[in-house]
Amino acid sequence: MHGTVRSTLSVLVVAVAACSEADEHAMFGSHRMALRCPGGELPFRLTVEADADQGLRAFVGNGSERIEVPDVELGAQLVLRFPHYDSEVRLDVDGGRLSGTWTKRRGSKKTTRMAVTRGGDGPRFDLQAAGADLWPQGRYSVRFAKSADPAVGEFRRVDAAGAAWNCEGTFLTTLGDYRYLAGNTDGRTMKLSCFDGAHAFLFHATREPGGALRGDFWSSDSWHETWTATPDPDAALDDGWGLTRWREGAALDDAALRDLDGAPASLAAPRFAGKPMVIEVFGSWCPNCHDHGAYMAELHARYAERGLQVVGVAFEHDEDFARSARQVRAFVDRHGATFPILIGGLSDKAAATASLSLLDRVRSFPTTIFADRRGQVRGVYQGWSGPATGEAHARLRRRFEALVEELLAPIPADTESARGRCPRRRMLRCGHPWTSRSPSSATSRTAGCSAT
């Protein structure tokens, strides 16, 4: 986890000394916190620690996931900042309380505010576990009421001694996954939640005769829909390699981009010429994109010396360029990214498609484009299966890295002369079989990041 913890030990000592004994007891340790959601309590785990070297530290937990809060400050309030999401939690600690507000700015016209309170030290949800044979687990075919596209649910039991949750899971879609969900089940009812500074997800479900699930999904304070799921060990999504395609005849310098200082920039710049490229289309506001961005930083670190060029193209929520650049820099800082990132414009998908003008349509943040050193597109992948998806994540990493190795392989002289060169500045041609499938039907709602 990259970022800085602003509190120093000396500041911590003074601040804690100013707290009453009840305040200190309320603040340190592990707490069951809950956002006040239209669907009820949306729980998450908050751990606050005093570190002799790093000062005050805080962690947000969703089952097996533990996220360090990058910026922690203790004054009149305990402030937990997630600068990469333009998000913060402010908590009052006086009188033994631990309560306050989560605020996330989603652009110049929208800000989310939700009350958050300490909810005791019991389980994530107050559901007493029944027999393990009744627990919803395994793979499910899922339908969300407001989406035309199918999803896949994966749920698993948790037997960790003393754990405050007894089930975990996630939902996979062709646009991204719902990251780490954790909760409890009593065999008939299942409740799962996630809070990571940007996402605030709450799922309720009831198990019906035959094992099917029927439930509700709330995202923050602004989204609600119903969903159904049927046990299906063979449930699968359309392959993300065929859902978004490179636009035939597209020129790299058609894309209207700027660097982080606001100067015009191009994917056809001389510094990129002759290099295999991985182009990451993303938004800094998107948790799936942060999972993807961490992997892009890893890829660049591993393969840059062999000639691979990773380039990010960010689409942000706000027309305020200074804010967009600040948020992208926070993304860079969080992941220690050393590859260049350009700004493409607004995250609205129609606007992003018009601005980028290289894909048939921008359907998902993130989307990944692979091009060889001749300028030929070898693959376009829509979405991302992050670490919460387990084997799906490992499998996708293997496919990405196999294609990177292919891009870096020397080009035989006879192949080069037979095919001819395709100047990167003029055009990228798409010839890889992974991009040959037709795009699926559009959906009015995007999963994962865009649902919030």
Q: Care to give the gist of this entry?
A:
This protein has helices at 9-18, 21-27, 287-303, 321-335, 349-356, 391-408, 413-419; strands spanning 29-37, 40-51, 55-62, 65-68, 71-74, 78-82, 87-92, 99-105, 111-118, 138-144, 151-157, 167-173, 176-177, 181-185, 189-195, 200-207, 213-219, 223-231, 257-258, 264-265, 277-282, 309-316, 341-346, 367-371, 376-382, 429-430. It is of the alpha+beta class.
Q: Using only CA atoms, what is the Rg?
A: 23 Å
Major sheet size, sense and barrel closure: 9 strands, antiparallel
How many strand elements? 26
Read across the widest sheet, the strand sequence of neighbours is 4-3-2-1-9-8-7-6-5
- The overall pLDDT, averaged over residues, is 86
Shape: globular
The end-to-end span amounts to 23 Å
Structural class: alpha+beta
Tell me roughly what share of residues is in helical segments.
10-25%
**Low-pLDDT segments:** 1-18, 417-448
Q: Roughly what fraction of the amino acids lie in strands?
A: 35-45%
- Helical segment count: 7
